[in-house]
Design a protein that fits this description.
The chain has 15 helices and 23 strands. By secondary structure, the chain is α/β, with parallel strands linked by helices. Strands 1, 2, 3, 4, 5, 6 and 17 form a seven-stranded mixed β-sheet that branches. Strands 18-19-22-21-20-23 form a six-stranded mixed β-sheet, sandwiched between helices. The protein has a five-stranded parallel β-sheet with strand order 8-15-9-10-11. Helix 1 packs parallel to helix 9, helix 3 runs antiparallel to helix 4 and helix 3 packs across helix 7.
């Protein structure tokens, strides 16, 4: 049996980061991975999807050159098939053609022992990988998540993609039905629609973008519809069947049906914890498959078992995995580091983008927080005019008692970038009185913060004055500039 200080199961963002960082500090580390070093993000998820979104956006922008004063005539683009092939070629370059040799070599150069295969705990302190036993002092679970394949009558009999398959496919379908209105469903719907694919998005819930602020979600749905996506909300897929032409006929709960060349299942992901032998250690994942960790990212009930990334079920994003990996690394190296996930940003990278952080007003109130909200229409920001954009919206939520920002949600050009101001404010609990004194460059989208922050600060001040006067506070109402 080979002995290691640390054995890491899973070489996604978290596992790759932990193993290389700890190995560079002189620890003996084994990294176990059955597929690719780097996980899904570089090869079949984050990077290829953002590449395709940018290509689709550029295609739209090219058609607007005349309106933006960049051309006296509207330019002529090639056919959708040719454009899609060019986008796919660029995507595959950025995704390194799904070849992890570079990442694997970098890990090994850092001193990591890379073990190809699927690891399973066979007894305390020992992992087996296809008959090869690896002893460990500390074990790190970083096995990520996997796409959910919904159990629907006939779905296995029709041409179906997961998002991983869609983002590695070479062909452009003539028509596509997307199941699921989360980030992946919205992004891939927009990509395909902008390349001329007849696209239908079916979401069983009342809005796209899950639990995001309702007005922001409604604007996103309209953006997709403006791009030609047939967005159907509150509708479920009941069954599917193969037509004589080899297409998918999908029957919906409202009695309608849709015929499409491909069905894309984007209904979520589940943590990958099954088959790891965790029962040997007395670790029982939740019904969702998530492995519970404490604030040090140590698996609950264990002293030498840690977890990071999607397998923990906490904020399933690459940036969360990277953050948790840093926490685990510091603790493995003898430091005492605690994770704080109160201000993890979320984004839907459509055009325009949706970005959120913290809590919306309703969620805050459910937690007993006296929340107040202010809204800003991005159409009032000067940068919208110079960019020739359609505007957007910023929604800010504050804790009236604490006088701090607790949530922000936005839709607008590059919202995923300028929302960082709210992320920092929430994480550091910066007082509203300080935020209202921040000077933003003109003209920028960051200026959108100023009016709603001043309104929130005034509402907080009103509440405090009312409390000092011995009354029950200001009346409950939403402050809005929309």
């Amino acid at each position: 049996m080979e002995s290691f200080d640390v054995v890491v199961l899973g070489a996604g963002s978290a596992g790759e980061s932990v193993s290389t960082a700890v190995a560079r500090k002189g620890r003996r580390v084994a990294l176990v991975e059955a597929l690719r070093v780097g996980g899904e993000c570089p090869y079949v998820a984050c990077m290829p999807s953002k590449s395709m979104l940018r290509s689709a956006q550029a295609r739209v922008e090219a058609r607007r050159l005349q309106a933006l004063g960049a051309s006296s005539e509207r330019p002529t683009l090639d056919e959708h098939d040719a454009g899609f092939r060019a986008a796919v070629a660029r995507r595959d370059e950025i995704a390194e053609h799904r070849d992890d040799s570079g990442a694997a070599g970098a890990a090994e150069q850092a001193g990591v022992v890379l073990v190809r295969g699927r690891g399973r705990v066979v007894r305390e302190g020992v992992v087996d990988v296809d008959g090869r036993e690896l002893g460990y002092a500390d074990l790190v679970l970083a096995t990520g998540s996997q796409a959910v394949r919904p159990t629907i009558e006939g779905l296995d009999e029709v041409p179906t993609w997961t998002s991983d398959e869609a983002l590695s496919a070479q062909e452009r379908p003539a028509s596509l039905l997307v199941m699921g209105g989360g980030a992946v469903g919205c992004e891939l719907s927009q990509v395909h629609a902008r390349f001329g694919v007849t696209t239908t998005l079916v979401e069983s819930g009342p809005q796209v973008a899950g639990k995001e602020e309702p007005s922001i979600a409604a604007l996103l749905a309209q953006v997709l519809r403006d791009d030609g996506v047939d967005v159907r909300l509150g509708v479920e897929v009941q069954r599917a069947e193969l037509t004589a032409e080899g297409l998918a006929r999908v029957h919906l709960s409202d009695g309608s049906s849709v015929v499409a060349e491909r069905v894309l299942a984007a209904v979520g992901r589940t943590p990958t914890s099954e088959g790891l032998g965790l029962e040997v250690l007395g670790v029982e994942p939740a019904d969702s498959g998530a492995v519970e960790v404490d604030d040090h990212c140590r698996v609950v009930g264990q002293q030498h078992v840690w977890a990071a990334g999607d397998v923990t079920g906490a904020a399933p994003y690459t940036h969360t995995a990277n953050y948790q990996a840093r926490v685990v690394t510091d603790n493995l190296l003898g430091r005492d580091r605690v994770a704080d996930l109160r201000a993890v940003p979320r984004a839907v990278y459509t055009d325009p983008a949706v970005a959120s952080v913290g809590m919306a007003e309703q969620q805050a109130r459910e937690q007993g927080i006296d929340a107040v909200t202010a809204v800003m229409d991005l159409g009032e920001v000067a940068r919208t005019s110079t960019e020739g954009g359609r505007g957007g919206r910023l929604v800010l939520t504050a804790d009236r008692a604490g006088g701090v920002l607790i949530g922000a949600s936005a839709i607008g050009p590059h919202a995923d970038e300028w929302l960082s101001e709210a992320t920092l404010a929430i994480r550091a609990r910066v007082p509203l009185s300080v935020l209202t004194d921040v000077v933003h460059a003109f003209p920028t989208f960051g200026e959108a913060y100023e009016p709603p922050l001043r309104e929130l600060a005034e509402r907080v001040a009103q509440g405090r004055r009312a409390t000092a006067a011995g009354v029950d506070g200001a009346p409950e109402q939403q402050v809005s500039r929309s």
